[in-house]
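Homework-ish question, so no full write-ups if that breaks the rules, but can someone show me the predicted structure for this set?
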Amino acid sequence: MSEQTTEHPLHFRPDEAFRARAKAVVDSPFLRQSFRGAMDFLMSKRAAQFPDADELETLRSLGEQIRQYNLSRLPDLLLQLETRLTANGVKVHWAETPDDANAIILGIIQGHGATKMVKGKSMVSEEIELNHAAEAAGIEALESDMGEYIVQLAGEKPSHIIMPAIHKTKEEIARLFAEKVPGVDYTDNVDALIQIGRNVLRRKFLEAEIGLSGVNFAVAETGTLCLVENEGNGRMCTTAPGIHIAITGIEKIVEKLEHVPPLYSLLTRSATGQNISTYFNMISSPRKPGEKDGPEEVHLVLLDNGRSQAYADEQLRKTLQCIRCGACMNHCPVYTRIGGHAYGTTYPGPIGKIISPHMLGLDGTSGLVTASSLCGACGEVCPVKIPIPELLIRLRSEAFAEPPGHAGKPSAMRDQGAGYSPLQAAIWRGWAAVYSTPALYRAVSWLGSRLRALTPRRQGGWTSVRTPLQPAPQRLRDLMKQRH
Amino acid sequence: MLPSVARPTDVYFFATCVVDQFFPTAGIDAITLLERQGIRVHFPEDQTCCGQPAYSSGFPDEARKVAARQLTLFPNDWPIVVPSGSCAGMMKHHYPTLFADDPVRKPLAESLSSRVWELTRFLVDVLAFSPEDCGTDCTVVLHTSCSARREMGVHLSGRQLLGGLRHVTVAQQDHESECCGFGGTFSVKQPEISAAMVEDKVKALKATGAERVVSADCGCLLNILGHAAWQDEQAGRPPSLPGEHIASFLLRRTGGAQ
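A: Not a homework solution, just the prediction itself:
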């Protein structure tokens, strides 16, 4: 359904051709209808999980507080997590960049002379383009989440953080399987398709030496990695192969085990409208003597990749509250119109727009932050109350500010001022001059109404689908004078 | 609903730049509605714009400059009524943040913020507005702006006002709570996405069969009516979706200026 880029995202500039990619989707009635249907379905599933507005509000506040509390103690908690995990026999690795993370993971794999890896669903592994790096190193990396498997077979990237293949119809998947899976005939029966995928994956679980997974919550006090999933593939990846490598962003940490249940409940209900997921895995150590299963070795890779930049700023830190439920994209009128691939980032939708500038820099993402009407639907449904519209406004100001070195205010943001345009800045300065000087405003608005016949017929993007904006013949202040 | 605050004798009216320049009748009708309720309405001549266009576009310094000029226009302790959820939201929720570091303007911003009322909310909650409906049977559809709904939480007021009109049926559009695609500079910076949103919005509004759309936000109306009119122009047909500010509709239904 969507054109895929073959560029390496680590060097990718999502802005380039963003509008063209978005336009390609909005111009397709089929895609529009298909995304609309999928998002409507997800929205209604979530709504059914929260019938009581007060309960939802209470839970959201609780979720927000838990996330904010844990973020406020993040440096300490990371050290505590490392200490606990190490004591439990889990090896902890720190990665500042995607390249660092890939080097660590490939180093572990190659150190064991391994060549086959099965992967549970992990957006952080997408973020570092692990599959790309593994392939380059001659290591087979097979996605075992059904959606991820489909996307990988198609040579694409996920278009949604929870439902990676939501952009694909069952007919497309049927054609894909018939073409790419040996010995499979075309069938668009969904159960049959899932069975085909499962048969392939089942063999791979037994063959793979390495299992890779993400982490939903890392519990510092116990040294426990929690993994939420529905297909059982996460459990297979973390128990069948001899070596389990988990990777996560540094923000996914909570201090106490008791912090997990409220977040877990918010996560599944917000994401897929499930009361609870089919599987919930808690991994605290490698296989212990006498145990019959589990990996002999467990590693955790903690990735920064721009998160500490967001962390350093009190307001931007709220970005890191995210528990990756995807509700913001499901409810976003922009995501619903353009789908996930158009964004060109690992994380699409509203959360993608506020987290990607930290991962990739504003140079290349400053256009993305304008792709929001600030309608607030994302902030309204966010289970941990991230004020996404407010953060978008902040990122716009960071993007359009005069770059440091001139009059700009220095900022913690990488590439501050990347979207700076002297013309745009001059327009706003002129606007402010007029609107902050009542006499000037009166003169300009009077002229506008007098010369309304001269209003341009073409007004940039506005008139592409709208009649021109034309001032009224008389302003309100003129009408006011006439009545008295 | 019982009035939750004391009924004032005087109010300030902050018209917004969009109403002043593009929808002046909405302003005059809102003022007339208030006056008909026995309220003295004051219109500070020096008002211009709340500053939101610059603020939401990422130009806080320019927004602050414009907002600062509005802060001193409302010296008396009267409510400030704004016929727009979006501009009211800016003044109520963002002024205090905008001036948080300015020891002189901060108290002014906070005082102003605490007195800002979105028009429909003011009519319902403070004036308990419920006059006789003098019109004939008609069906309208109500579009509520995202700021009115999510920032100001006043989405029920418009519905309540229309619900009080005996001969008016309020149609329910598909995806009612979804944005119309205006978003200020969004409509110019991302015209393709904005176009898709307003196209869907107009389709949903028209599908109700309502004879007109009313809204308490003129920004959305510029977008929705502008697109509907553009479609009509393209198709060479007469206007197919008239619309107006809810104040104009209410005034006409309830006996006009009298």
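Now go work out the reasoning yourself. Hint: Chain A has a mean pLDDT of 94.
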